[in-house]
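Bit of a strange request maybe. I'm writing a small parser for structure token strings and I need a real example to test against, not something I typed by hand. Could someone generate the tokens for this chain?
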Amino acid sequence: MLANKPINVAVVTYVSGRAAGPFGFPARNAAELMVESLNTEGELPGPQGSRGFGGRTLRLKVYDEVGSPQEQVDLFRRIHADGADVVVGYAGSGVAMAVAPVAEELGLLTVIAGGGTSQLYAHHAWKWVFRTQTTTTTDAVGAARYLAAQAGADNIAFGGVNQDYVWGTDSWSEFRAALMRLRPDARDLGGHFAPLYSAAVEHPLDSLKVAGVQLIHSGNWGHDLFRLVEVARARLSSTRLILVAAESGLARLSGTIPAGTIIGGRGAHGWLSHDTALNRWFKASYRDRYEVDPIYPSYGIANALLGLQAAWTAAGANATTAEVAHALAGSRFEGMGSTISMARANGRQAIAEAAYGTVQRDARSGQVALMDVLRFPPDSVNPPDGVTSLEWIERGFSV
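Reply from user aminoacidic:
Good idea to test on real output. This should exercise your parser:
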């Protein structure tokens, strides 16, 4: 009987290298907290407090995401050979793209909790691959809508500084298209790209400064984000930043990030999350255990596990992973920060709201807060099923 066997959960995230501190450890920490809490019946509030997945105990093993996409494909095959029942994780969009066809080949249930490229499902109909995190489109359109709603956005001269891989290129192309659709008077000064982890932002920022940039878009994360804020603050003090992934580094940047910077967090996560019983439990439990607040990579892992818990409960303790995949497809569940609907890509891709806020700094304490937070409903920041992101944007956000 499957009900008597533990479920082997493999979590893949950065536990070494440059991305470990700002991204991987927060994801790993959330995995450890969630698995231990889910194994203790009644630990989580509400229906999420039931034991394990459908009553079955979880057994966690964490693997390192560091390495090339091909190295991660090789690791994925080893994870399968190790007996994993489900794989959760992948901060990197390039890695997510690489492992997806292997998950299909092996029939191994895989839930992407981070990597957001909109291309993951653009030309593929995966059966075994799910993503409980939103896409670059949600982030890009949400950012453009937020900016378009601001006073003084007329005729704004904007440019981009992004990482030179699928996450960065998708983030820029979709933001640019969305802003030009919403604000045809905006002046596009072009996008600049630098290698991942290079923190090479000086030349792009100087080029945009010479061109007269007023707003800089970036999906940079980790050390590339930290360096961008540092250099922009020193060299472009009058230029506004819109940083779609900066919630993940806001605590570290709190002493230096300029007031007026627009911040996103891949949805309603962390500083931008809703005040719910489940989220209060998560924040308090994470803070008590790790002495820091959870950030959106933590939320990504937690929400992937909550989606699996809901699906396994619906399918039953004796369900096969194929039956769990069927239950997860098209499902809707309460996440840590917001409600998540598996409503795109034949039920494999999540949609959720986009949320953005503006950094304000207290003149006396120097502490920062996010003010003027706006939230955009899922259908306003995600294309309909079967329509690519750029097609939807270019049609004026209509079917």
